[in-house]
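Good day; I would like, with your permission, to put a structural problem before you. The record follows directly beneath this note:
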Amino acid sequence: MAIIKSLRGFTPKIGKNCFIAETAVIIGDVEIGDDCSIWYGAVLRGDVNSIRIGNRVNIQDNAVLHTTYQKTTIKVEDDVSIGHGVILHGAEVKQGALLGMGSTVMDNAVIGQGAIVAANALVLENTQVEPASVYAGVPAKFVKKVDPQLSRETNERIARNYLFYSGWYKEDKDKG
């Protein structure tokens, strides 16, 4: 069973139709929208500041979301995919963005709408990732613009796929 823990007077709030894996950890000032999936080993640690997750967001295996005390929060808008092993620390991720596997996004960075952060990229503090663009590397730099409609469709498809996958786990749970 997932660890969902109240802390410092804050109890995590989880929306409707969400899948929370048995080994996920959600602590403190965390609010998760509807139709989200929080996968195995993911940690959302709202112990020192708030974490707000929109609708249809998937936070994949071993991702870590955390903030800086009294300085930064996390805001993730709708239809975002946070890949396996991502570290998201005190940053904002706009609608339809994709954080590739193993990427790190640091405090006060803003990932623009429909943007793609490549696998293993390091987005430094205060970086503004342009909407509908690809950033890659260490540190992450602009690589290219992508067609905004194609980016939106691709990223929304990934988000919908994870909602679909989570249904398999709900079905198995219902079967006992």
